[in-house]
Amino acid sequence: MALSIGQSAPHFTLYDQDRTKRSIEEFLGEPVVLAFFPGAFTGVCDTEMCTLRDSIQRFAEANAQVIGISVDPPFVLKEFAAKYSLPFVLLSDYNREVSRLYDVLFENLAGLEGYHTSNRAVFVLDGSGTIRYIWIASPSPAVEPPYDEVIAQTKAFGA
Questions:
Q1: Most C-beta atoms within 10 A of its C-beta, which of 14, 117, 119, 133?
Q2: Is this structure's pTM higher than 0.70?
Q3: Contact (CB, 8 A) for 34 and 69
Q4: Domains of the chain listed by start with CATH number
Q5: For 42, which DSSP code?
Q6: Which of 34, 45, 125, 137 is catalytic?
Q7: 50 carries an active-site annotation
C-alpha cells in the first residue's frame, strides 16, 4: 500500500556502506531525506547522488540528514561513496525489503525480467519520523527529483 504524507515512516534497519547496521531511529530528532536510487555507478544515479552531495550545505542549514538507499550491496556502496566523496550514509537494501515497505520497488528494470531495484524516490521525514514530502519517479526511474523542491520541503520542517 502506498505511503502518504502525514503517516509515520516505516521503521527499518539496513547495513550501511561500512557493513554497520543502521536503524532509521538513530537519524530521527531532525529532518531526514531518504533518497532511494536504482543503482550505483549508473548515469542518472551518479548525477543524483552528486547533486545531493553538492547541496549538502543547504540540507545542513535545515539541520537535515541525507540518506541514500539502493539495492546495491554494501561493498559496491563503499566504492561508490569513495569515488564521488559522498558525505552522507548509503544504505544497502540488498534484500529489497525496505523498497517494498516504502512501496518503491521497481520491477524488471530496463526490461531485465526478474531484476528488481529501488525506484528513484525521495521521502522527507520530520524529526519525529512523520512523512512530510514524497516524490516518486514515474513512470521511469530515469527522471531526477526536483532538487530545489526537496530542499524547500526539508527546510520547512527543519532549522
A1: 117
A2: yes
A3: yes
A4: 13-156 (3.40.30.10)
A5: S
A6: 45
A7: no
